Amino acid sequence: MSADRRTFLGGMALLAGTGAAAQTPFLANDARAPFFPPKERFPLWPGKPPGAPKKPIAPDWTMNNPPPNSELWLRGINMPEVHVYRPARSDSSSLLVLPGGGYGFLSVQNEGLDPAERFNAERTTVFMLTYRLPGEGWDNRSVVALQDAQRAMRLIRSRAADYKVDPARLGVLGFSAGGHLAADLAVSHASPVYKQVDAADQLSARPAFAGLVYPVITMDTHFSEGSSQPNWFGDHPDPALIAARPLGVDEPLTLVEAQRGGGYAAPGRELANGDQLGKCTHA
User: How far apart are CA 23 and CA 229, in angstroms?
Assistant: First the structure.
């Protein structure tokens, strides 16, 4: 992670849970570790998630970068979960937050815990999703993260009364590769990418609004760079598979997009964004 990301999010929140390393089970002896995971969280899938590999996936949590820019990165996501961060007094708004990491890891500290703290202060309930990473052996690797995002939206809506949130005011906020997943959810929320599990899957997965922060917005190599495409599709993807996703938007959606300076976005990405999310209302 570059310092630019920390600078961007530094204005949003203070580091979450400083000095609470004992709560982080795989990093109990690392003083840099934040308070994670929270006590309130729930799994997405009863039993194994769809397309689970035969070989068990071992959790791999690491602290990266020296203080004060240390970040918790997660790999080895064998059981995706929704982590719940409640404000002191909810105004019934809520966010599904999707950390980035190029689909190769999840940067949950600066792109999950920090936004949760910031938006809790605005009375918004935050649900941070630790979604599966496509390259960790899952079948149909290009849809596993979307499966998790759709399922999370539906489960949150099914439990809206418990969390005191308005199902119609549930949006999504994604960072980097998480911004790509947020866009994928916005345009493919109704795509049947997994078999229904329970009554919650009859609910809509459509976000009320989408916030894309320095997003990877396309897997077309003319517009994208870095590790996201091979992590999402594999080393030699079928061009037709890349062209088929994301899908078109079926109804208007409010899109809030943030790009950072310093050449992070590839030239022309904003054009691809306009083509693929053309029916969205930009705010």
Answer: 33
Instruction: Look up the pTM and report it.
Output: 0.78
CATH code: domain of residue 161:
3.40.50.1820
Total domains in the chain come to 1
Residue 98: give the domain boundaries: 3-282
- Over the stretch 197-224, which tens digit does the pLDDT of each residue have? 999 999 999 999 999 998 876 655 554 5
CB 87 within 8 A of CB 51: no
Amino acid occupying residue 43: P
